[in-house]
Design a protein that fits this description.
Layout: H1 3-11, H2 15-26, H3 31-37, H4 39-42, H5 47-76, H6 82-90, H7 94-101, H8 111-117, H9 121-129, H10 137-142, H11 154-170, H12 173-186, E1 188-193, E2 206-210, H13 216-227, E3 231-236, H14 239-250, H15 258-305, E4 315-319, E5 326-331, E6 337-343, H16 349-366, E7 370-374, H17 379-392, E8 398-402, H18 407-411, H19 414-419, H20 425-438, H21 440-444, H22 463-481, E9 483-484, H23 490-494, H24 501-514, H25 531-537, E10 541-542, H26 560-569, H27 580-587, H28 589-596, H29 600-611, E11 641-650, E12 653-657, E13 664-667, E14 688-697, E15 702-706
Helix pairs in contact: 1-2, 1-5, 2-5, 5-7, 8-11, 9-11, 11-15, 12-14, 13-15, 14-15, 15-22, 16-17
């Protein structure tokens, strides 16, 4: 089966669609471009499916390359048979290939190689063959004594032969595969305390779970506990289950060498096979858990980036703090900084009143409508002060707690220093918090996705894979929304398909030197932005200042003629295109596509874009919750029904912001009435949900919530 055929089978897609995507990728096209502008070639696969295809393609190509190098290595040793070559070609995973290669792989010096140097390989072969007329091992060993080679006794000879046979058994691919399958089915992971002190790992101080039922978060927690020397962990398999399987594979009943081979098999299992399989299994468990955690991180990141913006309002950002006070920044509707200051509401009642007075003056001076409060240190006190401020100014103000994850990383970065050279680190953070409310995506792209913190154990993940996954999510979100060519920062432009850091800076430099872009075509005048980059990026960049309405839509320049023909065909104008999708359906999409020589998916996209020029897909999502009052954990009582925002989704539940300082936990069993394997099947980060309070533990600051027990209205 070819790679294309295998991908088609795995992804359940027609072969021609897979072929087209592989060709497009090999030609240097980006995933967002392929997903958005080449739908006819791949049957409208979304960016997630295309990235899965890209990952599997890379794996299968790497697998093919490894098979060829393994066969070449074995052929050099003149040991490659047709049967072995066929087995290597048929291998489905890299692990299978490595199992087949193991007997031929150059090894470091082992007990078996030492025994072979002593001339004991013929003895090992004789005994391992277990022929009916095979002499007793002691008799056979007598012929291999040699003081010169260090084989002085029969016991020495038999020990050397044992070492060689044990290694042969250990290198047998079929045996390893069988024992690996047994370990996967019947093995367990056991963790024990490595310390007497209490810790966050106490759940795992005496823990055992079948490998098949282990959860990703359990594996990662045990791994971290081991790393911090709080736990010791072992993969266990009942030896009495494994040895019969091994004996059946290598022992021939009735032979004089039977007991010798049985002992060698046990030695192979205890000394070579099981330690190797245990290491392999721990690595496989970690890989699987990491893969799941990375997917979860990516799944949470997307809705966080795609949170609806609160645009067009003067906004105040508050970065709470104790020692250095609360940093304040006021920004206008476009994100431009209007004012900054520092207040000290936590220093005492007098200072709190002074802070409210100063903030009230800023609110009045600049016409502030919304306040964004960072959720870090002292946010509880800052929220209380904000509610008093709202009462003082007589309403007209609302606030929202925003995640300040990564704000300190950004404010101390070279990028922030270039953007705000006149402000210190703390004030930059307040600006970032205000902008996160106005346009989360435009602000969060400036931060390393790992620092945004909507996953578990991100520092324990394989960083290369985590970066690739999260950067792909950011890229997909930015391109799904589209970017204003005349206001976008270099950070935002860098995430556009086809652009890189250098070209993004060149675009901004061109803009500063020549004024705003008035057409997409002007992009071709930007240094280092050639035809290929233009093809990839143009459809994702918006030019509101252009006289051509198409420049402010997701219609690609290559389809401008088709868009004009469509308007003519349906008797519409760019200003009179709000009902274009309905007109297209009435006319017949297939009929129109045939008349215009354009694919149906592309035509439908053109009609949708023309009906809402400059539209932001995030505007179609539920608006974020803006509050005017505050609850205290003491105010919470079981049975209370509240509205909250999902802050994080993890394996065992959902954390929801309900307007008190501490997020509440909805355990997976309380998410919904139907059975789900993971909370992400029901909710996503940023969702606005109704919850009922189940239990409140003030001392431990724990709030238990339910989504499924909310009474019907």
């Amino acid at each position: 089966m070819t790679i294309i055929e295998q991908l088609a089978r795995e992804l359940d897609r027609p072969v021609e669609h897979i072929e087209n995507v592989v060709r497009l990728l090999d030609e240097g096209n980006t995933i967002p471009f392929i997903a958005r502008y080449r739908k006819e070639l791949h049957g409208s696969m979304d960016d997630t499916a295309l990235r899965t295809l890209e990952e599997r393609l890379a794996y299968l190509r790497n697998l093919t390359e490894r098979k060829e190098s393994v066969k070449a290595s074995i052929a050099e040793q003149e040991k490659l048979t047709d049967e072995l070559a066929a087995a290597i070609d048929a291998a489905q995973t890299l692990a299978e290939v490595e199992d087949l290669y193991r007997p031929y792989k150059p090894k470091r010096r082992t007990r078996a190689t030492v025994a072979k140097e002593k001339g004991l390989e013929p003895l090992a072969a004789l005994l391992f063959a277990q022929e009916r007329d095979c002499p007793r091992p002691e008799e056979a060993a007598a012929d291999y004594l040699s003081a010169e080679k260090g084989v002085e006794t029969v016991a020495d000879a038999l020990q050397g032969a044992n070492d060689i046979v044990a290694e042969w058994i250990s290198d047998d691919a079929a045996i390893r595969r069988s024992l690996r399958e047994l370990l996967e089915k019947r093995g367990t992971l056991r963790s024990l305390a490595a310390t007497e002190e209490d810790s966050v790992y106490r759940l795992y101080y005496d823990f055992e779970q079948p490998l098949s039922r282990l959860q990703g978060h359990q594996i990662l927690a045990i791994n971290r506990g081991e790393k911090e020397k709080m736990l010791s962990a072992t993969v266990l398999l009942d030896r009495e289950l494994a040895l019969p399987l091994l004996r059946r594979a290598v022992v021939k009943p009735g032979s004089a060498a039977m007991e010798f081979v049985k002992a060698a098999a046990e030695d192979a299992y205890d000394r070579l096979i099981y330690p190797s399989l245990e290491r392999e299994m721990r690595a496989a468990l970690t890989d699987k858990a990491s893969e799941g955690a990375i997917k979860m991180f990516a799944l949470n990141l997307k809705p966080l980036l795609m949170q609806p913006p609160v645009k067009g309002h003067v906004t105040m950002g508050l970065d709470p703090g104790y020692a250095h006070g609360c940093k304040v920044a006021v920004i206008d509707a476009t994100g431009k900084v209007l004012d900054t200051t520092v207040v000290y509401p936590t220093y005492g009642e007098r200072q709190k009143n002074e802070a409210i007075t100063k903030l009230a003056q800023l609110v009045k001076k600049h016409g502030v409508e919304h306040i964004a409060i960072g959720n870090g240190t002292a946010s509880r006190e800052t929220e209380q002060m904000t509610v008093e401020l709202i009462h003082r100014v007589g309403g007209g103000l609302s606030y929202m707690i925003v995640s300040e994850a990564g704000a300190s990383v950004y404010s101390a970065s070279k990028l922030a220093a270039e953007e705000f050279p006149q402000f210190d680190v703390n004030l930059r953070s307040a600006v970032s918090i205000a902008r996160r409310l106005q346009d989360p995506l435009a602000e969060l792209v400036k931060i390393d996705p790992k620092a945004i913190g909507v996953g578990q154990y991100q520092h324990d993940m394989p960083q290369k894979e985590l970066d690739a996954s999260l950067n792909a999510v950011v890229e997909d979100c930015v391109n799904a929304v589209g970017v204003d060519l005349n206001t976008a920062s270099p950070s935002l432009l860098t995430r556009v398909a086809g652009l890189n850091g250098t070209i993004a800076k060149n675009i901004v430099a061109f803009r500063e030197e020549n004024g705003v872009f008035t057409t997409r075509r002007q992009l071709l005048k930007v240094a280092k932005l050639g035809p290929k980059a233009f093809e990839q990026c143009a459809g994702f960049l918006r030019v509101p200042e252009s006289k051509n309405v198409l420049d402010n839509t997701g219609v690609h320049p290559e389809s401008y003629d088709a868009a004009k023909w469509l308007l003519e065909l349906l008797g519409a104008t760019p200003k009179d295109a709000r009902d274009l999708p309905a007109r297209l359906n009435a006319y017949g999409a297939e009929k129109a596509a045939e008349a215009l020589g354009v694919g149906v998916p592309t035509l439908r996209d053109i009609a949708k874009e023309l009906s809402k020029p400059g539209r932001d897909p995030r505007d179609e999502l539920p608006a974020p919750i803006l509050r005017t009052d505050v609850l205290d954990i003491k105010d919470l009582k079981p049975g209370m029904v509240l509205t909250g925002t999902v802050r994080n989704v993890i394996d065992f539940g959902v954390f929801v912001d309900i307007g008190v300082h501490q997020d509440g936990l909805v355990h997976i069993s309380q998410v919904c009435n139907k059975f789900i394997k993971h909370p992400s099947e029901a909710v996503a980060v940023g969702d606005v949900v109704k919850v009922v309070v189940l239990d409140v533990d003030e001392k431990k600051h724990r709030i238990s919530l339910s989504m499924k027990q909310v009474p019907e209205e």
